[in-house]
Amino acid sequence: EVQLLESGGGLVQPGGSLRLSCAASGFTFSNYAMKWVRQAPGKGLEWVSGISAGGATYYADSVKGRFTISRDNSNNIVYLQMNSLRAEDTAVYYCAKLKGRNNIDYFDYWGQGALVSVSS
Amino acid sequence: DIVMTQSPDSLAVSLGERATINCKTSQSVLHSSNNQNYLAWYQQKPGQPPKMLLYWASTRESGVPDRISGSGSGTDFTLTISSLQAEDVAVYYCQHYYTFPVTFGQGTRLEIK
After folding, report:
1. B104/A107 CB distance under 8 A
2. What is the mean pLDDT of chain B?
3. How far apart are CA A16 and CA B16, in angstroms?
4. DSSP one-letter code for A60
5. Bridge partners of B80?
6. How do residues A23-58 score in pLDDT, each as one tens digit?
7. CB-hemisphere CA count at 13 Å for A23?
8. What residues in A contact B51, CB-CB < 8 Å?
9. What is the C-alpha separation between A27 and B80, in angstroms, rounded?
10. Do A108 and B52 make contact, defined as CB atoms within 8 angstroms?
11. What's the rounded Cα separation, in Å, for the pair A96 and A46?
12. How far apart are CA A107 and CA B48, in angstroms?
């Protein structure tokens, strides 16, 4: 059974940093692309960042230069380092597995989400 | 970026009746190389993450009931629930995966009338 378990969310002041982790199990992690998708309170889904099976990384313009995605294939974890956080980054952040190896695909599994609140 | 526009924004349907949600893309997501539409549908129930329903516009994910179906091609797509059940109350999203970046529709809230 595929499981994705996010951790690392919380309350942070504007300008602060957080690192989200997503522990994956139930599939051969190194063979699949992974993404972070966020959902602001009461809003829709927004792709944030992705990493292919080969390690290529991609970012939405709204987070480029502030967020960094990485993966640890030895421990089946994908990370999202978030720096210079802004109030508009407040959202539930979902870790999601893509169907294939590359960043352009559909999402076949989602984690339960980690809440990030940016407020003073 | 491809813009995804869903209609309506919200919908109330009686139990047992048909529900229809539309998704329009700003450019075709039909790939000529394999004649596939690069479009997916997701269901998000309150307090839960999204769940994959359909890919290639009309292929059901394993475990999705056959009352849920997808149709359409090119730029116009439809999600249909043939006989609404109480457990179908959710927000539904379409997403293209035709090119970078993937984008989602704004969501359609489905409720019981």
Report:
1. no
2. 97
3. 50
4. -
5. B20, B69
6. 999 999 999 999 999 999 999 999 999 999 999 999
7. 4
8. 110
9. 31
10. yes
11. 12
12. 15
Three-class SS state of A83:
coil
Contact A111 B95 (CB under 8 A): no
Under the banding of pLDDT at 50, 70 and 90, the label for residue A101 is confident
Using one digit for the tens of pLDDT, what is the confidence trace for B24-59? 999 999 999 999 999 999 999 999 999 999 999 999
3-state helix/strand/coil string of B35-94: CEECEEEEEECCCCCCEEEEECCCEECCCCCCCEEEEEECCEEEEEECCCCHHHCEEEEE
List, as ranges, residues 50-109 from B with C-beta within 8 Å of A.
50-52, 55, 61, 93, 95, 97-107
Please name the residue of chain B whose CA is at the shortest distance from the CA of residue A44: B106
